Amino acid sequence: LDAPVSSIALRKSGDYVITLGTRFAALKWKEQQVTTITHVDTDKPNNRFNDGKVDPAGRYFAGTMAEEIRPAVLERHQGSLYTLFSDLSVVKHFDQVDISNGLDWSLDHKTFFYIDSLSYSVDAFDYDLQTGKIGNRRSIYRLEKEESIPDGMCIDTEGKLWVACYDGGRVIRLDPETGKRLQTVKLPVDKTTSCCFGGKDYSEMYVTSASDGMDEEWLSRQPQAGGVFKITGLGVKGVPPYPFAG
After folding, report:
1. In what residue span(s) does the SMP-30/Gluconolactonase/LRE-like region domain sit (predicted)?
2. 37 in a domain, yes or no?
3. I need a labelling partner for 42 at 20 to 30 A (CA). Which of 53, 95, 168, 189 fits?
4. Does the annotation list 23 as a binding residue?
């Protein structure tokens, strides 16, 4: 493709929707065909989408950021958070975002969780399932120094959040009600980027990592950098992904 694919979602009508560069697009896998649905950030040629996920009502939330000069170094406050609705209209929720990242919804669908990486915070919003509107933003967890930068995120069936810590070499489990860290799972690589549950019963966790910006000496110490890891035996399960309703 002609631009980076930053997130992908199942589509109720079949195949997929993706974020590609600064476009929401439809992907037909067998035909290898990509069709643009809509462009965002058209006034910012240096921007691209980053993380995205479908909400419980089938809307696709995804946010943008400026292209990085090197990992986590970029022009600040260039990104925004968007929603693609099932009628293929787009709404912008807010701008001034650094790196739009991990996102998910509480089990009762009343709270939207969101990460802007360079704020070093996991935030929560009140969430209206009927309209897809968000409001009343607040921080529920601030990362410790050794946890470094919050990246991708997912929720488990107990309503706890899992956050991949970029440059922190770990995934942490948080209680969004108390703001406490409950668990830390360390990985043999520093640049853990995202996490999700999978496997037959969603009891396995899959964690992605990056190798971008690592020199030869660093890579020789962490030869698995850039790999995907499977974590078993966590004792909790994840929530299946919602398909895009459009």
Report:
1. 3-211
2. no
3. 53
4. no
Q: Give the domain extent around 217.
A: 144-239
Kindly give the confidence (pLDDT) of every residue in the chain, 246 residues in length, as a single tens digit, with 9 standing for 90 and above.
999 999 999 999 999 999 999 999 999 999 999 999 999 999 999 999 999 999 999 999 999 999 999 998 999 999 999 999 999 999 999 999 999 999 999 999 999 999 999 999 999 999 999 999 999 999 999 999 999 999 999 999 999 999 999 999 999 999 999 999 999 999 999 999 999 999 999 999 999 999 999 999 999 999 999 999 999 999 999 999 999 999
Question: Does 151 qualify as catalytic in the annotation?
Answer: yes
Q: Is residue 122 domain-resident?
A: no
* pLDDT attached to residue 105: 98
Domain assignment present for residue 152? The answer is yes
Known binding residue 48? Answer is: yes
| Cβ(127)–Cβ(146) below 8 Å | no
Q: What's the total number of domains in the chain?
A: 1
Residue 181 C-beta-side C-alpha neighbours within 13 Å: 16
What's the CATH code of the domain at 194?
Answer: 2.40.10
CB 242 within 8 A of CB 60: no
151 annotated as a binding-site residue = yes
Domain assignment of residue 156, yes or no: yes
pTM of the model: 0.97
Dihedral, 208, 188, 219, 174 alpha carbons, nearest 10: 50
Residue 244 is given by DSSP the state B
User: Looking up tokens 């919804």, which residue turns up?
Assistant: 105
SS3 content of the chain, % helix, strand, coil (to 5): 5, 55, 40
In terms of Cα–Cα distance, which of 176, 185, 57 is closest to 113? 176
Strand order in the sheet with 149-155: 149-155, 161-166, 170-175, 180-186
